[in-house]
């Protein structure tokens, strides 16, 4: 179990359930926090320094027409999308009918303009380690969200706030937490978990070849 805090990797669903039930309710051990509201919480770094809505910034750059730094106020001025969708972890647990609110990624991309040379989108976390990617076609789905609210309130720090990615049709490890940067690229650049053996395309319901990736 001590290896969890070092490697940042959660074990399979059955073992994870035993671990969650064994943890005291008084806070994190390594990179796994006790379950609450049906969710389990993970980090890949052990701890992440909090950012408030006032201090949060997100750079959107790369193969775009107008690189830009977004604040929370900037996101609020863009069209808002509401989704009622499940959150499915590849380890087997699921939280049904979560209400997500934020900016659909296609609307954000339209605000900066996408270069014809762009083929993919790379996301980076302000934890300094966690990254993810989608193809441009995947990123233009209306059920991919730059989320600022969930379950009726702001996205909490443990959930990856103040802003996180939510990719509804894919397993949770694609829904990057603590979103701090978006880069348009000429090809898919595999993210943190893909470099550790997980599928780049993580569609829910399809085998990912591994069963121990956290979200």
Question: How would you characterize this protein structure?
Answer:
The protein is an alpha+beta fold. Helices cover 16% and strands 31% of the residues. The chain has helices at residues 2-7, 13-22, 72-77, 105-112, 136-139, and strands at 32-36, 39-42, 58-62, 68-70, 81-88, 94-104, 120-125, 131-135, 144-150, 153-154, 164-167, 179-185. The protein has a 5-stranded mixed sheet. It is globular, with a radius of gyration of 16 Å. The protein starts with a helix and ends in a 30-residue tail after the last strand. Residues 47-193 form the Oxidoreductase molybdopterin-binding domain.
User: What is the name of the CATH class of the domain at 48-196?
Assistant: Alpha Beta
The best one-word shape is: globular
The low-confidence parts are 1-35, 208-212
The helix/strand class is alpha+beta
CATH architecture tag of the domain at 48-196: Alpha-Beta Complex
CATH superfamily of the domain at 48-196: Oxidoreductase, molybdopterin-binding domain
Q: What portion of the residues fall into strands of 2 or more residues?
A: 25-35%
Order of adjacent strands in the largest pleated sheet = 4-3-12-7-8
Helical content, roughly? 10-25%
Terminal Cα span: 18 Å
What composes the largest sheet? 5 strands, mixed
What is the tally of helical segments?
5
Protein name: Molybdopterin-dependent oxidoreductase
Domain Oxidoreductase molybdopterin-binding: 47-193
InterPro entries: OxRdtase_Mopterin-bd_dom, OxRdtase_Mopterin-bd_sf
Organism: Actinomadura graeca
